Amino acid sequence: MSLLRRVLVVLLIVALSAPIALVAQDEEEPQMGLWEACADPANLPEVVTIGAIFGQSGNISVYGIPQSQAVALAVEQINEANYLGEGVTLEVIYEDSAGANEQAIAAMTKLVEEDGVVAVLGPTLSSEAFSADPIAQENGVPVMGVSNTAGGITDMGEFVFRNSLPEASVIPGTIAQATEALGLEQVAVLYGNDDDFTISGYDVFVSALEENEVEILGEATFARGDVDFNAQLTQLVSLEPDALVVSALAAEATQIIVQARQLGYEGPIIGGNGFNSPAVLTNAGEASDGVIVGAAWNIASPEALSSLFSEAYEEAYGALPDQFATQAYTGAWLMATAIRCADSAESADVRDALAGITDFASPLGMFSFDEDRNPVHDPVVQIAQGGAFAVLGAEMAEE
Amino acid sequence: MDALIQALVDILRPLGITEPVLQFMLVNAILGVSIYLTLYTGMFSLANAGFMAIGAYAGVAATQFIELPLWLGLIVGMAVAGLISLPIGLPVLRLKDIYLAIATIGFGEVVIILLLNFDEIISSVATALQGERVRIRLLEGARGIKGIPKSTETWMLFAFLALLMFLLWRLHKSRLGRAMAAIREDERAAANMGINVVYVKNVVFVMSAVVAASAGVFSAHLTRIISPGAYGFDKAVDILSFAVLGGTSTWVGPIVGGLAMGALPEVLRFLNELRGVFIGLILLGVILFLPGGLVNPAGVRLLFRRARRALRRRADAAERSSHAAP
After folding, report:
1. Lesser CB count within 10 Å: N end or C end of chain A?
2. Region B212-223 average pLDDT
3. Do A230 and A254 form a contact (C-beta atoms < 8 A)?
4. Stretch A328-352: mean pLDDT
5. With bands split at pLDDT 50, 70 and 90, how would you rate the model's confidence at A18?
6. Do A95 and B13 lie within an 8 Å CB cutoff?
7. Nearest 5 degrees, angle CA B70-CA B73-CA B75?
8. CB of A162 within 8 A of CB of A153?
9. pLDDT band at A24; cut points 50, 70, 90
């Protein structure tokens, strides 16, 4: 009985014994939005304009395009359902930031000072957010990151929100569950050190491992765009760790999984958000069995709203949504909900309403903002089996 | 001064140029000066982005860690870059043309990798000394240094650029400026005329590095966050494109090129994701039809002459055809 199979058996037992909370199905289809909690708004102007800053060109368009498509889908649904009341349309001004801090600043300045938008969604990258969000803060316009996962985003001020779970809320749960299920004692860590996303993930992995009293045998780094990880993997695998902990983006993650298996490593591979891509599984094939990922959302999510959204998105754009699309879609609905509940197109009122949103049913699950304007919802810990992700059981990481 | 800047921004606003855009345009103009100095001397150096990174990090270290005012941070950034450029320049500047370009690209990569791994290097040294695992977080690697106050003002950029322009104007009339031009035209002849080529080249390299570093300090205090990735090969090519667009026949060229390249993405904002394509087309058009760049009196004259000749030929042809048909 190989270690891998033993791992799978243990995880299956864990998965089956975990109480699976089934969403109570209503007679009618579940619907996005707080229709009951907030009355139909009556004091809104005919057109309410929000801004969206996403990297629609350049090398981050792989994230930015699904984001803007998902926001467009949400806005279409919001306007069709008259979510903001009869005769009120929500309009979005999309700005491209191309992944450059300078352009994010220029786009934010244009939206906030020239176009006078009520609120802003975005920008795509955390580094862009650190550059551009202070402009919204200074002008008293709420801004909501829908893909910023770095630490310290919402410390920029009370007008800065995000609905994307920071790595700090996903990874500790992943590590805690994996430690419990696999009895981890010693691990090796491999991470990309030239990208703020992968290195933030690494930071959280290290502190989570320390918290769970797991020893780190060794660490190795790689750079974005690397394709050969044999040197690092040989060194790490030779330490005979119980698990390989990897902080990487999708492209590198695939190669790391394949090459680790080629080197004869059969143990579990624990990944961060970057592994949460169907492409990783399809490209890594059988090698991906035993890969454990914690993420904010996955296509396999049991939420009813999630499958509704996936269907609508596929119908509109001919492709399945990824995590970025889902978070952007939820972000647009949250912003519309804040406008509805505030019954005002004044930025300050919208901010207050946004900060007060709790128990919002969404594709990400039950969603709330905490007092620091960070998201609170259950992340999903999954394991890859036979080329598909299976949910291990969602438990909120205890702070 | 503030009123003047406000008036200028109001004029440019319909084009989509707000004050932050203007600030980055001016930073680009300073970078244009930096690459102009080396190109004018006939050195194809792409080290500007690396020196910009050094300036940014040294300047931010001065203003954030030691809490010095911005003008002192500016001096620190420039001084550090100047000191680093000397030992780099001495061996590297023996190379010419494309080999110099490759070596300076390499320098830029080395700077980025050192900045990315700075904390790990320090940590491993400390770990070796202490005997137990130490994690030091100083430059924050790829996370970038966050929360830098936006202390660069538009008037500072204008004043600094004006100072640079004045110095360039003086330089061209000076002995050093003439020596630079001579080296560009023919290095061997210049050496035979008694010009100390190695000395002049290194002085120019240091000047270029110092100017690039000043742009780094200014832009770091505009973007509020600096991370090594922002100063990579892409940035080096961007800076080169200022010189290509503006032309290097006069010192106004790269400044205009920098201003234009800063403004273009915002002026073309209405094109959304096609902006990059259009900017590429504009650059291509300039390379094909205005080989000397936008600011090149001779080139513009040549273009006019060609156009006039073409018109005249067409008029002649029309006349002939009207004679031919009685």
Report:
1. N
2. 96
3. no
4. 95
5. very low
6. no
7. 115
8. yes
9. very low
Å from A102 to nearest chain B CA?
7
A104 neighbors A53 (Cβ within 8 angstroms): yes
Is some CB atom of chain B closer than 8 A to the CB atom of A154? no
The residue written with tokens 């903002």 in the block is A369
Measured distance between the N- and C-terminal CA atoms of chain B, rounded to whole angstroms: 69
Contact assignment for B20 to A105 by CB distance below 8 Å: yes
Q: Hey, are the CB atoms on A57 and B275 less than 8 Å from each other?
A: yes
Q: Which residue matches tokens 């765009």?
A: A225
- pLDDT digits 0-9 by tens, A56-84: 988 888 889 999 999 999 999 999 999 99
CA atoms A206, A212, A218, A223: torsion sign: negative
Q: Is the pLDDT of residue B3 over 90?
A: no
- Name which of B25, B60, B273, B275 to mutate to probe chain A: the one with the most chain A Cβ atoms within 10 A of its Cβ: B273
pLDDT digits (tens, 9 = 90+) for B223-278: 999 999 899 999 999 999 999 999 988 899 999 999 999 999 999 988 877 888 89
Question: How many whole angstroms separate alpha carbon A132 and alpha carbon A10?
Answer: 46
CB–CB contacts below 8 A, A to B = 92
Looking at the partner chain, which of B142, B223, B224 has a beta carbon nearest the beta carbon of A196? B142
- State how far the Cα of A44 lies from the Cα of A79, in Å rounded to an integer: 14
Determine whether the interchain pair A105/B144 forms a contact, defined as Cβ–Cβ distance below 8 Å.
no
Residue A137 CA to residue A129 CA, distance in Å, equals 11
Burial class of residue B60, CB neighbours in 10 A (0-12, 13-18, 19+): buried
Interface test with B, best of A102, A114, A215 (most B CBs within 10 A): A102
Q: Nearest CA to CA, how far is B130 from chain A (Å)? A: 18
Q: Give the type of residue at A15.
A: A
Spell out the residues 6+ positions from residue B298 whose beta carbon is closer than 8 angstroms to its own.
Answer: B249, B292
Q: Identify the closest residue of chain A to B21 by CA–CA distance.
A: A106
Among the residue ranges A253-262, A285-294, B129-138, the one predicted with the least confidence is B129-138
Distance CA A191, CA A245 (A): 8
Within 8 A of A53 by CB-CB distance, chain B residues are none
Q: What residues in A contact B18, CB-CB < 8 Å?
A: 106, 109-110, 113-114
CB burial class (10 A; 0-12, 13-18, 19+) of residue B1?
A: exposed
